[in-house]
Amino acid sequence: MSEPIIKTIDDVEPTLEQMQKFVGGYIEVVYLNKESLMIIDEEGKFKGKPMNREATEIAHEHKAIFNTDYIAGDAMILSGDARLS
Fold it and tell me: At residue 61, does pLDDT exceed 80?
């Protein structure tokens, strides 16, 4: 299994299908701040996806998840015009 990645989008809001395809399942929205949010696989941990260290660090920095929690699998950060309406 390859290392999970983060994709940042700031120009065009992706469709639900695009977000689900990227994260590999149902999406969960993690609000980072007023300008950006993170899209992750809602069941990433249950599916045994590996920890995404970079996404976890970002979520911890923004106090978006508990210190003992982590992000599993690929993550997508949406900001600017890509932020969900």
Answer: yes
